[in-house]
Amino acid sequence: MNPRIEALEKMLGGPRDSALLRFSLGNEYLKAGDAAKAGDCFHAAVARDPAYSAAWKALGKALAEAGDQTGALAAYEKGIAVAEARGDIQAAKEMSVFARRIRKALED
After folding, report:
1. Which of 44, 87, 88, 104 has a CA that sits 20 to 30 A from residue 52's CA?
2. What is the pLDDT of residue 41?
3. What integer pLDDT is reported at residue 17 of this predicted model?
4. Is the dihedral of CA 61, 64, 69, 71 positive or negative?
5. CA nearest 75: which of 108, 35, 107?
6. Which CATH number is 3-107's, of 3.20.20.140, 1.25.40.10, 1.10.10.10, 1.10.340.30?
């Protein structure tokens, strides 16, 4: 197993368990090619901090890579609302582009 993933997983459930830890673990799973596990981690990150716009964006990406286009679109739409509310304009723009691509693909 990936040593970074192992180290992060050891921290789960402990005093350092947080949205950031779950986000970091999700990113490691994405790099390792496990989009489903990454999605679980990003879901946990936004459950802990619903205003974490980067985690919403990553959740959308993980769900899209796992083949869940509808779920990815929903994550991006929620992420856009969160990012706009926080003034994170760049993240909102990026997620808007990804959401638009998914909508177009779903229409075809």
Report:
1. 104
2. 98
3. 96
4. negative
5. 35
6. 1.25.40.10
For residue 35, the model assigns a pLDDT of: 97
Residue 67: which of 106, 41, 96, 31 has the closest Cα? Answer: 106
Q: Is 17 left (phi over 0), alpha (psi -120 to 50) or beta?
A: beta
pLDDT at 108: 81
In this structure, what token pair is assigned to residue 61? 């990406």
- Which pLDDT score is estimated for 1? 72
87: left (phi over 0), alpha (psi -120 to 50) or beta: left
Give SS3 for 41: helix
pLDDT along the chain (108 residues), means of 10: 93 95 98 97 98 98 97 98 96 97 92
